Amino acid sequence: QVQLVESGGGLVQAGGSLRLSCAASGSIFSRNTMGWYRQAPGNQRALVATITSGGKTNYADSVKGRFTVSRDNAKNTVYLQMNSLKPEDTAAYYCNLVTATAFTRYDYWGQGTQVTVSS
C-alpha cells in the first residue's frame, strides 16, 4: 500500500506563488509517475502536471510557463511550484502516483490540498 501526504496549499492573491509538496510512503516501485491534478467545484478532476521517475514532464496547457513540477526520488516526494497564480487556478489539488507491474496498474491519490487565489 502507498500513502500520499500533500502540503503547501493556502490562500494567495492573484500574481502570487505557492509551492505544493507530496510525500509518498509505503511499497513504492522505483519506476513510477507522480503528479498533480485539480478539481474545482462543479468540474471534473483534471491534469495539472506529471513527472516520471526518469524526469519526463507533462503539463496542462493552462499552466505551461507558470507551474513547474519536480521530484526528489530519494525522498519519494513531488513538488509543484506555482507562479503567476490566477483566480481560475482555485481548486483542490490532488497528488497522484501511478506505477505498474507486468499485469497490474496501481493508482494512488492523496487527500487533497486547497489552493485559493483571490483577485
How many extended strands? 11
The residue ranges in which pLDDT falls below 50 over 5 or more consecutive positions are: none
Q: Which descriptor suits the 3D outline?
A: elongated
The amount of helix comes to: under 10%
Mean pLDDT, all residues = 96
Task: Report, as a whole number of angstroms, the end-to-end distance.
Answer: 40 Å
**Separate helix tally:** 0
Query: What fraction of residues sit in β-strands?
Result: over 45%
The major pleated sheet works out as: 7 strands, mixed
Give Rg in angstroms.
14 Å
Note the run of SSEs as H and E. EEEEEEEEEEE
Structural class: mainly beta
Structural notes for this entry:
With 119 residues, this protein is mainly β. It contains no helices and 11 strands. The mean pLDDT is 96. The strands form 2 sheets. Strands 2, 4, 5, 6, 9, 10 and 11 form a 7-stranded mixed beta sheet that branches. Strands 1-3-8-7 form a 4-stranded antiparallel beta sheet, with no helix packed on it. It has strands at residues 2-7, 10-13, 18-26, 33-39, 46-52, 57-59, 67-72, 77-82, 91-100, 105-109, 113-118. The chain starts with a strand and ends with a strand. Helix content is 0%, strand content 58%.
